[in-house]
Amino acid sequence: MLRLARVGRTPPELEPVALDDLVRSVLEDLETSIQDSGACIEVGTLPVVDADPAQLRLLFQNLLAKAIKFRKEGTAPSVRVRSAPVAASAAERSPSVLRVVVEDDGIGFEQEYADRIFRPFERLHGRERFEGTGIGLSICRRVMENHEGAIGAEGRPGRGARFVLSFPYTATQELP
Questions:
Q1: CA distance 10 to 33
Q2: What tens digit of pLDDT does each residue of 127-159 get?
Q3: Which of the residues 69, 133, 151, 162 could staple to 103 if both were Cys, CB 3.0 to 4.6 A apart?
Q4: Taking the complete model, does pTM exceed 0.85, yes or no?
Q5: At the top level of CATH, which class does the domain 2-168 belong to?
């Protein structure tokens, strides 16, 4: 709860953040969970974004930990992190948004709950099956709002989840 409150009232201190390096660092922090679950995590080339590194660390830590945790029983999770620019319109040549996708092959969720999962303390699965506080995705949404971006979710029960992060693009950012 304290992390959610801090993210909510602390304005981001923007600096260039190499998402490749940041995600690698988060994966090092999650090494025990990765080994225990047998997770296979693929990370594509990611951009440099203007962001608060501490807030982005929380964002990716939550997303990657959830991808590992919400796996199908008896199956090693497979997680992919990749990036793709999105053009503002077909007429424009330069991108206006940088999109980063974190997707897994875990237990997924019904698409009708895609917005609900970002609310604090909303849980789609009982505590007896998956431990946690129920605020991780709320933190993710708050971080993206702090960066004038957005986060969306897509899910299919038994087929996995996909989280799409949309960062505003500036000319100083490197595209993958």
A1: 29
A2: 555 454 557 888 899 999 999 999 999 888 888
A3: 162
A4: no
A5: alpha beta
